[in-house]
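Sequence in, structure out. Go.
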Amino acid sequence: MTGMRTLQITRTLCIRSSSRGLHTSTSLFSGHSRWSKIKHDKGKVDASKTKQRSSLAKELTSLSKSHGPDPNNNTRLAAAITAAKKAGFPKQSIEAAIARGQGRSTSGAALENVTIEAMLPNAIAAVIECQTDSKLRLLQVLRDMFKSYGANITPTTYLFDKKGKLIFQPSAKASGDELLEHAIEAGALDVETDDDGNIVVLTEPSEVTSVGQALTNSLGLKIESTELIWDPKKDSAVDVDSPQTLEAISKLTIRLEEEPSVLGIFFNVA
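Output:
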């Protein structure tokens, strides 16, 4: 498997680039952090809340995009809205996430897809996928944010490969050689399972739909989510051993997660 240890954070902190990626939870800094225990514990709580908000927003957006924005005609969206409300997710944020799935803001303005590229200290490259109705405002916000972490806005996508990512619900019927064989026949680039037992399949960007349909038909798999990711090239991945550097990435990720326009965060951290 290539690149599966690299980092993405697709609106999740752990740095989860969705996914494939560097999982940088606060616990990584245990025993090494310069924070006091109180700040350390608070950081863990903040990261947990950020992860939950990101997960809820991502699910609402995905369900709105794939099955429609009307919860009366979209039972999965209705269930997600109920879960978000129980978790204390603000009504405005729920509405914004649903509207984002339709490519617009809550005011009805069309959203523009924007890719922000940046280079952090220690040759750590970042690609941030966004959707906004005000590109200039977004660029200024992120430029100032990156500057505070010693980063510069500069081209970095050449250090990554753009790929499609499918997540299928766990299935006892699809595992091992049979899963791999069907995935290869469908045109998949890579297959593995995540910590929750979900089946993760990587594809060429243009083949996400066809691979998803093929595996659904041949193995009866149910698609949980689909997205496009930036997967760091093997020779561009950077090993980070410094707790201070990992801490800085974690803090930056939390700030990026709090920006509503940010959809996906990808680092080339091995």
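Check: The CA atoms of residues 67 and 75 lie 9 Å apart. The longest strand covers residues 223-232.
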